[in-house]
Amino acid sequence: MDDEGFMQEAIRQAYKAKQMNEVPIGAIIVYKGDIIARGYNVRETSKTALSHAELIAISEANRHMGSWRLEDCTLYVTLEPCPMCAGAIVQSRMKRVVYGAPDLKAGCAGTLMNLLEDERFNHQAEVTSGVLKTTCSSLLTDFFRDLRERKSRNDD
């Protein structure tokens, strides 16, 4: 499977979040061509700030690999990682990160800054951006538009 095929699976994870009225962000981790971990955003449901799709997938991959090191793994995520997730990606020694939509407010894989390729850290992850960008962006845009419309109807 190629980057677009794996991103489709991350998008499926994002739809799981959307079905729970969570911000639709999904992630998967691939090792040697196999999906070893999946995650989707559940911050509202769990009431914890750490419940980002990437962190859930990293934890699952750590269990699968039996190690905190994910050196030969690729993370696919529908939205550019935030600073917290970018830090976890560097700390887990992820080889590569592929994301769909840029995050103009918190993106730390090239938009606001690039923590993943910063040579001051002892590890860098290769970044590929914009894979299925339109689909990933639309998923988020539609979710927030619908949320605003629901709030507007409830305020009337």
TrEMBL record:
Active site: E54 (proton donor)
Needed co-factor(s): Zn(2+)
Residues binding Zn(2+), per UniProt: H52, C82, C85
GO molecular function, one term: tRNA-specific adenosine-34 deaminase activity
Keywords: Hydrolase, Metal-binding, tRNA processing, Zinc
CMP/dCMP-type deaminase domain ranges (all copies): 1-147
EC number, UniProt record: 3.5.4.33
Cofactor info, note text: Binds 1 zinc ion per subunit.
Superkingdom of the organism of origin: Bacteria
Reactions performed catalytically: adenosine(34) in tRNA + H2O + H(+) = inosine(34) in tRNA + NH4(+)
Similarity remark: Belongs to the cytidine and deoxycytidylate deaminase family. ADAT2 subfamily.
Function: Catalyzes the deamination of adenosine to inosine at the wobble position 34 of tRNA(Arg2).
Subunit structure: Homodimer.
The name this protein goes by in its record: tRNA-specific adenosine deaminase
Originating species: Lentibacillus kimchii
